[in-house]
Amino acid sequence: MKIAARFLTVALLLAPSMAKAQLMPDADVLDQLKYDVKYLASDLLEGRETGTEGERMAVEYIAAKFGNVGLMPYGNKASYLQTFTFKAEPVLGTANTLQVGRKRVKVNEDFAPMPFSAAGSALGKIYKVGYGILAPDLNHDDYGEVSLAGRIAAIAISSPDGIHPHSKYIAHHDLFARAEHAIAKGAIGILFYNDDPQAEDPTLKLSPKAPVLSVPAVFLTNKQLQEHVIDNNPCAINVDIVREERTGTNVVGLLDNGKPNVVVIGAHLDHLGWGDEGSLHRGERAIHNGADDNASGVAVLMQLARDLAEMDEARANDYLFIAFSGEEKGLYGSNFWTKHPTLPIAELNYMINLDMVGRLDSSGAIGINGVGTSPAWEEVSRVLVGDLKVRTTTSGIGPSDHTSFYLQDVPAIHFFTGTHADYHKPSDDEEKINYDGMFRITRYIESLITSLNDDGKVPFTKTEEVNTENTPRFKVTLGVVPDYLYDGKGMRIDGVTDGKPAANAGLRKGDVVIAIGALPVTDMMGYMKALGQFNKGDNAAVKVLREGKEEVVQVTF
Ligand SMILES: [Zn+2]
Questions:
Q1: What is the tens place of the pLDDT at every residue in 32-84?
Q2: CA pair distance 70, 308, nearest whole angstrom
Q3: In this structure, are 100 and 187 located in the same domain?
Q4: Same domain, yes or no, for 221 and 272?
Q5: In terms of pTM, does the model score above 0.90?
Q6: 155 with 127, same domain?
Q7: Secondary structure of residue 331 in the 3-state scheme
Q8: Which of 46, 210, 279, 534 is 20 to 30 Å from 293 by CA-CA measure?
Q9: Model pLDDT for residues 499-537, shown as the tens digit of each residue
Q10: How many domains does the chain have?
Q11: How far is the CA of 197 from the centre of ligand 1 (A)?
Q12: What spacing in Å lies between the alpha carbon of 86 and ligand 1's midpoint?
């Protein structure tokens, strides 16, 4: 800012009519971009995982830069920061114990807590309830009139006709639902075991997205111990799962030109830390510096703030700069901002998302995703800056933060220099960044913004989606965007795609899917599992909660 001010004085003296001369000289911009990426992608910040000290340091750095430019603080409480909470990856504590009869068994070797187990203990006598299935539709009831009060329910994980896609009990395979039946009968703990050589053991991987029972539940992994699972044998369970709530922080600042329309410029500041869920690294733990993903986007965002503050041609809008956190965990930060906007969504003109802009290759091709979100984006191929080649895709839904804005009917595009072999690996490092490319993209965006000046507020259009579930292993799609921040029971819809099964059946944003066909949907995993059962052309009754009330719609895949 100091440099810019000095040049401003010089420029006024020499050539008062040259508006561009107020901008930072190109060489200084290159230095600044490099300085910012080097800091954000340094080992000091340990990969900037949301909720960690490294994220906090990145947040502080960006907030200080926003302050230097003179942005107005548009986070919470007149600060640049907007915080949100999320469930951290659950971890096993040290006090997981199980004793069955006189047999004291070992965690991980002989048993493991179920991912949906409560943390806590239970001491009682075992009662075997067979498969623990309650299926009035099939005249099957493993419980009858029995009371399980004060008992540990022992449940075999198979079903009367086995575990396979054609089992007529498929709607009742879900172990969480079986445990809930046992709890409803009074069980104080659940002991799952597998006595069917054909049935696969359940997944024991903990997940922040799994729903949680009200009692402890464990799975006996060591099959030899099943001989101790006998009615009235005493059983003591202690499950120690640490489920922490963490805080992530967005950084938000407004360049206030006193105009009614606000352009949002966003880039995610977080990355994978030492190798979060999204890591593609195999081997020793290592810091994932995320230079391209997405120190590059944040550096361009901060440069745009410096430049737009100085450009007379940029006074047609206000500009809201948001460095999002929680992107890598599922667009948490942008999802949160759009649900708790710090200025009215109705005032937003359009959104520009910068995610991975540091690897412009020799072809000079820059990807711009989401150009179907407004006819105004026809402009992207008319803007000429150097020899950048623009490659566009239309969909407003993609794996980055522009999606959250598209879902609020805001025209939104995503700048992206493409994926590479270092993507989500510790080798996404600073020395591989193309700073000249970042510089050219910065200038390109500035030209694009000014060329849209006379368009006023640009219109929004819905885009056609390809396959929103984005997973080739599914034969069908519902055509919805799940809300990944939702942590209640079921799958909440954050957006529906026109012309796809969900939209055709009248499903709406905000609906919570709790069953597809006969399959209950308790969480994202259940949703995916349920989808996997259908083929193109199949019909299914989809049960949803709409404003708290159950409704059923018929979907054709
Ligand atoms: Zn990214």
A1: 999 999 999 999 999 999 999 999 999 999 999 999 999 999 999 999 999 99
A2: 12
A3: yes
A4: no
A5: no
A6: yes
A7: coil
A8: 210
A9: 889 999 999 989 999 998 888 888 877 787 788 778 888
A10: 3
A11: 43
A12: 19
